[in-house]
Every structure is written in structure tokens, then in C-alpha cells.
Design brief:
This protein has about 240 residues and is α/β, with parallel strands linked by helices. The chain contains 9 helices and 7 strands; from the N terminus they run βββααββαβαβααααα. It folds into 2 domains: about 140 residues, Alpha-Beta Complex (Conserved hypothetical protein from pyrococcus furiosus pfu- 392566-001, ParB domain); about 80 residues, Helicase, Ruva Protein, domain 3 (Orthogonal Bundle).
Amino acid sequence: MSKKTNDIFDYLPKCAPDTAQGTQARLKLSQLKPTQNAVGMDEVNTKTKKIASKSDKKLEDYLLQRTIPIIIGNNGQYYLIDHHHLATSLWLAKGDMYVPVEVTKNWNPIEGSSFWRAMAANNWVYPFDAMGAGPDNPATLKQHVKDLDNDIYRSLSWVVRSDYGYVKDPNNAIFAEFKWGSFFRTRVIFHAQLSCEKKCMEMTLADIEKDDPDDYHEKIAYALYLASSREAAGLPGFVGRSN
């Protein structure tokens, strides 16, 4: 009998509050606490389609190459510090399944402001909202990957990176895409954003491309130009001209 998607990692131990640093284990998506408030839904939607089409075996292989790093802290809470887009896509495609995780740090005895200071010192929390406002008290962070808001500028940074406007590598700062998103937020405005009346936060780049392809392609080209300009020279993964 084939395993259900929910059980494909049953050979990994369940993660517990006392699981040692460096251990690979499994947790359900609903147990993972985000360390950011937003994702780019264009990237999420693309990943969701890809994941939904995978067999359990291919999904297992795919996820073992993308083990989710977590911090244990705040009295037995599990915080994902990367792969928020992947976790959200998995939730949308497969529901509350077990995923492979690796314990980056076990800080379970550390709680409250001491925990969050340690997280901030390691750049493992991004306490800004989907509109770029913040930093906010970490108590305002979303509690589930299904609740993460859409940040269209995080999507824009993903599109620019996909078109080789900048690079992502192990030496890049964590939350690099959000830093690029903040850079674009004050420089690129799509026509649709100026006429939006309701559900504006839910707007995706795919919506804009469908409704106003000329403006979409013009603004993507402009964002790619900006990514190579001297203005962007200090951003992680910059590959453009610096002089």
C-alpha cells in the first residue's frame, strides 16, 4: 500500500522541544511558526502548481533537498527561518503534511524578548508587514503559514532574480528578496496600484500582466534596469554596474 502524502517522512523522528541542534526530523506544517509576515504570492502560486503535480516519491526527493531550517525556542515553539514560500505552497497543494526540518539552534530555554533579541541578532526574523512598514513587535507575526499576507514587491524581486537581475547564493543575506522588494517599493509603481479600490493587497503580478500587459512588461524592464544600477550596488547579490 502506498503511503499518504502526509506520511512520506515517517522514517524521520518527530521533532520535540528537546531535539538536539543539527538533527533532521519531521514536523507538520501547522506546527511551524513564521518569522516573517508576508510572501510573494506569484512565487507561491508557481510553486503550488509544481508541487501539486508531483508524485509522493518525487515530492519526497524534492523536499529532502530543501529541508526547512528551524529554531526551537519560546517554550517549545518551532520557527522556520527559511522556505516560507515553500511551506505556504505545500499547505495549499497538499494540506497539513509532515515536512523534513533541521534544527539550526535549540534555544528552547530562551523566551520572550531575550529570544527575539537573539533571533534579530542572527537576522532570523523579519518583523515588517506586507506593505514594508515596521519593524513591529514580534508578537504581531503571523502564527501559521496559511495566514501570510501577499507582498507584490516580494514577487517583483523574485521575477527580477529569475531574470538574472541579481543572484541568490549561500553568501547572500537572509531575507535578501525582501531587501530588494523594499528597494523596488519606492521606485516601481504599476498603473493597477493607482486604481485599485478593494482587495488591493491580494493583487499579484500575474493579475497585472493579464489586465495591463504593456504596463507590466514596461515596469519589469524598468525593475531590471534598476537592479543593475548604482542605486542597487549595496544590495545582496548585486551583479550590475557599480561605477
